[in-house]
Amino acid sequence: MDFTRRSLLAGVALLAAPPLRAAQRDGPVIVVGAGAAGLAAAEVLRRAGHAFTLVEARGRIGGRAFTDASLGPDAAFDAGAQYIHWADRNPWRGIAEREKARIGADSGWARTLLIDGRPATEAERDARRAGFGTLTALLVPSGDDRSIRAAAQVGGAGAAQAAANLTRLSLGEEPERVSLADYDRLWSGEDLWVDGYGALVARHHADLPVRRETIVTGIDWSGAGVTVATSRGTLAGAAVIVTVPVGVLASGAIRFAPGLPPGTEAALAGLGMGAYTKIALRLDPARLDLKAVGDAVSVARRGERDLTLYFEMAPFGRPLAIANLGGDGARALCEAGEAAAIAEATDRLVQILGTEARGAVTGGRLAGWWTDPFARGGYSIARPGCAEARLGLRRPIADRVFLAGEALADGGAMTVGGATLDGARAAAAVLRVLAS
């Protein structure tokens, strides 16, 4: 018999599960979380004619797909997801086309590179390009499911630096904490840049009934059905689909009774949350001509940490400069708070554009998912040696607790499209169980 890590986790879950009553077949399905996965699950249940209750801790829907208009309607920006990845198989491509969402062209490589506040030399730029070239050849999975950092080390300092830039600015995590095998499984294809991805998600699901500002604190699955404790009372149902991010699950913010089976806990321990972060600066176009400015990268040290900011300048022509960052430096900045984050981004922008840029900044917003209690990170990351953890979370618990979300989406992980597909998968699984 072929014993894989996945089958071993499933076996542990079965052997360790306490004796429980047979699953209840009638009653509503409780869906926890109105991000992309929860919304998709609710849509499947609604189409099937099955009763459901969808609860959401925030006062809005969409989760980490969120278009933030707090800096003004003309300066709205996607604080979370902004690309329809692998568009050839992503359900949001068709939705975006039908709803005539505005699609932009990716600006490609940044025109400007600053290192410690000064323009990079041509030799430094060449070295960074060479490092990425070397890294690309080294990112080949091996049987030991090593980290991206371990794979890059044999390529020297340039490849190691490229690995850090890759994982921090695309995953929000340090390279030593990222499974190369899992990274290699991510689906690839055309990426479409959406103007208002979060707004598109909210608009598409606007007619779904959602109990907002309802925080789930406990799930009891010891009976034939489930009982869900919330900040607005207790809900009872035949089953529950839990779509909160794995960072929230791992934090213990939701108490399970009985506790999650050892196999589920082991799979959950194999996943972490990256700290992909954005800092949006609103700019006065009368004081700064953003049309002449391309994207820029600013590299600097902050104490013991590298803090690299990638600036998107005037996305979709809006009066904004949006700094993208990740890894431990982003964590520290999120923990320092919004004022500190805006100050850091402003200082870096001044280094890029000159002193007049400081007076042009009229507002700012930190999209700090790392310190958001309902996210606890940007999106899920499989740790080295834990590439099977995503699929390990898919096994239903006693046919009444089902987990779903981007973290379980295998090759579609870390994306709105993956979360949507996985929410639909979980709802279909619930319906099969309840119909049996």
UniProtKB/TrEMBL annotation:
Pfam family, one: NAD_binding_8
Entry-linked InterPro entries: Amino_oxidase, FAD/NAD-bd_sf, Flavin_monoamine_oxidase
Occurrences of domain Amine oxidase (ranges): 190-431
Main EC class the enzyme belongs to: oxidoreductase
EC number: 1.13.12.3
Pathway stated in the Swiss-Prot or TrEMBL entry: Plant hormone metabolism; auxin biosynthesis
Superkingdom in the source lineage: Bacteria
Alphabetical keyword list: Auxin biosynthesis, Signal
GO terms, biological process: auxin biosynthetic process
Catalytic reactions on record: L-tryptophan + O2 = indole-3-acetamide + CO2 + H2O
Coiled coil: none
One GO MF term attached to the UniProt entry: tryptophan 2-monooxygenase activity
Signal peptide from the UniProt entry: 1-22
PANTHER family registered for this protein in UniProt: FLAVIN MONOAMINE OXIDASE, LYSINE-SPECIFIC HISTONE DEMETHYLASE 2
Family per record: Belongs to the tryptophan 2-monooxygenase family.
Name of this protein: Tryptophan 2-monooxygenase
Organism the protein comes from: Methylobacterium planeticum
Lineage: Bacteria, Pseudomonadati, Pseudomonadota, Alphaproteobacteria, Hyphomicrobiales
